[in-house]
């Protein structure tokens, strides 16, 4: 996790490194983007990466229980047949360490490290119209110039530590799950307070509870969760995967959310109550994100959604023995899957342990952090460690931390002051030759992300190849195309129940002061892909191309 210290005064005396392209970030997106630019297009390209290793999300999120929610055979690249054939996943849902091994293997196999500059945080990126080049500055005082900048900084890479009064006075240790220490944290015999019950909190609580003397979970918004039913992969399943790479690849590219399962064509309301219960039971037993594929209208009809919500709330009440705790956990105020639906390994069961308790912050809010723990309205909770499972300044946070300036000195902060505005989540009007991998306005976080990432990187690579072939020096999304696209993104969200979770990070609602706007594109991956393909086929319609 080591980051270089503050900028040195040597900063601007060194000559700038000149490149064709700079990629920011060495996660799933950046690694594949470097490979495409360097090995397919023959460009000089480098990744600049804050961390001292590759992996992105999986480098930073080393909290106990960190695990993938996409099934392993779909949480991978599909661009290389050899890579698919030589890699074998061990579990249905790979843990953090296994995904890290995979991404390190990719970096080594394609010899990517020689073009990655680690321990390098990008602090600013400024477009110079006269040279049609980006000037990129890093925290350790290096300067780079490049014709293209590809931002692959991640949708969930800017940790959100809430501003709770008194944190600086806390005498114990505290950690954010998205900046977890590499050496791990010793919970044995410790009183631990965990704030947050999103996907992360739901994964980590049962594991922390195994060794902590006591775990207090501070819950602001109760959440749904479905069992993951993780298990080692059987030899038969591994063989199936090896024999069906192409079919699996076709499947994930054909579904609306990039996962290798189809959504049932049935409505939850067209079957009898008995039949519905049977189908939900079967989905609960199967486990995983595909629970939400049980019926086609779970995300579009409130009445249909209510049936899933009631089923899960019923399960919570069955599992959790203490009635008051069960009620607080099942008191969920938003439609099922309107926030990213977590999957878990014994989350609700953890509350049956003697050493786990729940504080319902809706009834008993946090007043402050004290040197000895957390003071809520009703009592003081003595703690040795506080774990912030409080999520991220999602989708825009990482890029807005960089001082990005486009044409005529326009800052990204100004361009996005009412919320992120992009065309297709790929480009921003006013910022020529800057591309965003899984930027706001693209399906990104609503999709199995390696699928969304490969689609974006392939599109960007083909666009840059087209520019070279046609002698085009500059590409920039037009204001009109961006306006139309924002309307499309809003309409797609409004056709679903997703905006009804008014406290969701999809809307930016988890970060005080952040503009409220539904950020990912909810119209589905196939529809989205056709917009992108059509724009390209029509000579990059919606973009201004300058020779
Ligand atoms: C705990 C967790 C579990 C997840 N599980 C799943 C899952 O099961 N399925 C799924 O589809 N998605 C999942 N996701 C989403 C996950 O983020 C993506 O799947 C994927 O890993 C994103 O890759 P990326 O390259 O776009 O971004 P990241 O992996 O976030 O990589 C971005 C990189 O950019 C670097 N960076 C950021 N700012 C700068 C800067 N200014 N200068 C230099 N470098 C910078 C960061 O250090 C980071 O290494 C999960 C996310 C989290 C947090
Ligand atoms: N395996 C996986 O696939 C996996 C695992 C982890 C994360 N992820 C991805 O990362 C995303 C983020 O997940 P996350 O769980 O890290 O974050 P999250 O979904 O944003 O959840 C954060 C939690 O912290 C709470 N919180 C935030 N600020 C608070 C405050 N000031 N006081 C009290 N509670 C506060 C939130 O409550 P409110 O709901 O009230 O705001 C919420 O319960 C997921 O949605 C998913 O896309 C994926």
- Unreliable residue runs: 1-11
* Class based on secondary structure composition and strand pairing: alpha/beta
Bound molecules: flavin-adenine dinucleotide, NADP nicotinamide-adenine-dinucleotide phosphate
Instruction: Identify the overall geometry.
Output: globular
| Strand segment tally | 20
**Helical content, roughly?**
25-40%
Biggest pleated sheet:
8 strands, mixed
The number of helices is 16
- Strand content is 15-25%
* CA distance, first residue to last residue: 43 Å
Rg to the nearest angstrom?
Answer: 23 Å
| Rounded mean pLDDT score | 96
Structural notes for this entry:
- It is a single chain.
- The chain is α/β, with parallel strands linked by helices and 547 residues long.
- It has helices at residues 28-40, 57-60, 81-86, 96-109, 199-211, 235-243, 245-254, 273-286, 302-319, 323-330, 347-350, 397-400, 412-415, 449-469, 479-494, 525-537; strands at residues 17-24, 45-48, 116-117, 122-128, 133-138, 143-151, 173-176, 191-195, 214-219, 226-227, 343-344, 356-360, 366-370, 373-376, 380-382, 385-388, 403-405, 434-436, 474-477, 543-546.
- The strands form 5 sheets. Strands 1, 2, 3, 4, 5, 6, 17 and 18 form an 8-stranded mixed sheet that branches.
- Strand 4 and strand 5 (133-138) form a beta hairpin.
- Helix 1 runs parallel beside helix 14 (449-469) and helix 14 runs parallel beside helix 16.
- The longest helix has 21 residues, at 449-469.
- 49% of the residues are buried.
Itemize the secondary structure elements and their pairings.
Blueprint: E1 17-24, H1 28-40, E2 45-48, H2 57-60, H3 81-86, H4 96-109, E3 116-117, E4 122-128, E5 133-138, E6 143-151, E7 173-176, E8 191-195, H5 199-211, E9 214-219, E10 226-227, H6 235-243, H7 245-254, H8 273-286, H9 302-319, H10 323-330, E11 343-344, H11 347-350, E12 356-360, E13 366-370, E14 373-376, E15 380-382, E16 385-388, H12 397-400, E17 403-405, H13 412-415, E18 434-436, H14 449-469, E19 474-477, H15 479-494, H16 525-537, E20 543-546
Parallel strand pairs: 1-2, 1-6, 2-3, 4-17, 6-18, 7-16, 8-9, 8-16, 9-12, 10-11
Antiparallel strand pairs: 4-5, 5-6, 13-14, 14-15, 19-20
This protein binds flavin-adenine dinucleotide and NADP nicotinamide-adenine-dinucleotide phosphate.
